[in-house]
Structure formats: structure tokens, C-alpha cells
Amino acid sequence: MRAQGQIEEQFRSPEALGEPLSPETSWAFNVGLTATPWDGATLRFDVYQNEVSNLIDTEAVARKTNGQSVYTYVNRNEVFTRGVEARLTLRPTTRLDVQLGYDYLEAKDRQVLEQLEEGTIYRREDGRDIRVTVDDYAGLPGRATHSGTAQLRYAVESLGLTASVQGTLRGRAGYADLDGNGIIDADREYLERRMLWDAALSKTLRDNYTLRVGTENLLDYTNPTRVPSLPGRTWFVEAQARF
């Protein structure tokens, strides 16, 4: 692509990507608690830790002249992911279900953390070399530290109607190493936080047939360069039959 003039900016050279991919191995544990604090409410709480060797991950390594990113697969030596997941389900009436969720995630490379603690990673700012600290390190690309969901579902069984609205909040996450120091640590290397809303309405006919219409990404959020998987607002019509 570079020889054909398709590359506008290259973040990493092929030589910097390392050896051919090695197989990934991991171990993990999860502790969960489910409780019913009051009638019509269910709370689910999970804490987890994963330790991964040779994590096979994707990384943006260049940007094309049409604005699209070029991705490749890389190994990350010793990675850990840990976090907390909380889910609250409410049913204030027989027709209304409300679900609220929150996720906290840390996903980082232990080798990078060691280098940061030793003070061996720098970035260039205003003509000066600035030492990068552990707090500057965003972790693995594409992983938001904070995210959440909210869903409302209203059903009128006598009419066979169901309406639902879901919002997904995704916090700021790393995008790519743009300054060439091997990690994501500067503001311009992040994906901005975003809120996505989906809505749908379904109608059941004769018990076995369902018609469904709706929209995804209702507010029409787009970022063609850094989030090409989101094409913008999408409408859909669906028909289902059960035999």
C-alpha cells in the first residue's frame, strides 16, 4: 500500500512489530455475587482477574489517504486485565424492566509498567523529552476504563407489543501510538468518550410471528478514521417466524 501511495501516515514500522505471532496462553478467575436487595430488584456483582502470556491483539499501525486505519495483529508479552462488573435489574411494574450496568477495566502490559517505573520511556513535547509516568499509560488500545449501559423495556403482552431503548456509554480509550514511543500516553492518541443509543419496537402476531423495527446509533455518532465499525445511524426491519 505504501508503494501504491495509499499510506498517509505510518505509526509503526514493520520491523517494530516483532517476531511472527506466538500462541496465546492465559489463566483467569472470577468471583460473583447475586443479591435481591428488595422485591423486583436483582443486583449482580463480579470481580475478575486475567493473566495472559503472548496476548494476540490488534493495533492500528498506519492511516490511509482515504482516512481509514490499517490494523495488524501483534503479541503482547505479559498482560493482565482486571476489573469490576455491576448489573442492577429493576422491575417496578409487570410491564417495565430497567437494567443498569457499570464496568471498570484495567488492561495493561506488565513489561511496559516495569519500563515506566524504571523511567526509560519518554515522549517528545514542544521540543523537549518528557518522561512518561505510570499514570500517563493508557493501557492496551481499544479498552475503555469506564463504561456503562442503561436499558428500558416496556411490554404490553395483551397487545403483543414490546418497546425498548438502550444506551451504551463508552469512556475514553486508547487508539494508537502516534509519537513512536511504543505506548499510548498522550491525549491525541485516545478515542473520545461516546454515547450510543438504540431503540426498537416489536409486535407479535399469532404467537409465532414477530415484526420488529428499530434504529441503531440513534444520535448518528461517527468517527470514520478511528471507529470505522460505526457507519452512523442505521434503520432496520425484521421478521421472525417460529415453527
Provide a short characterization of the protein structure.
With 243 residues, this protein is mostly beta strands. The chain has one helix at 110-118, and strands at 7-10, 25-35, 41-64, 69-90, 96-109, 122-125, 128-131, 146-156, 161-170, 173-174, 190-191, 194-205, 209-216, 234-241.
Describe the structure.
With 243 residues, the protein is mostly beta strands. The protein has one domain (7-241): TonB-dependent receptor, beta-barrel domain (Maltoporin, Chain A, Beta Barrel). The protein contains one helix and 14 strands. The protein has one helix at 110-118; strands at residues 7-10, 25-35, 41-64, 69-90, 96-109, 122-125, 128-131, 146-156, 161-170, 173-174, 190-191, 194-205, 209-216, 234-241. The strands form three sheets. Strands 1, 2, 3, 4, 5, 8, 9, 12, 13 and 14 form a ten-stranded antiparallel β-sheet that branches. Strand 2 and strand 3 (41-64) form a beta hairpin. The termini are far apart. The model has no long low-confidence stretch (mean pLDDT 92).
For the terminal residues, how far apart are their CA atoms?
50 Å
Radius of gyration: 22 Å
Q: Provide the succession of SSEs.
A: EEEEEHEEEEEEEEE
Instruction: Assign a percent range to the helix content.
Output: under 10%
Class derived from helix and strand content: mainly beta
Q: Sheet bearing the most strands, described?
A: 10 strands, antiparallel
Q: Looking at this structure, what is the CATH superfamily?
A: TonB-dependent receptor, beta-barrel domain
Q: For the residues shown, what is the average pLDDT?
A: 92
The CATH class designation is: Mainly Beta
- Supply the number of helical segments: 1
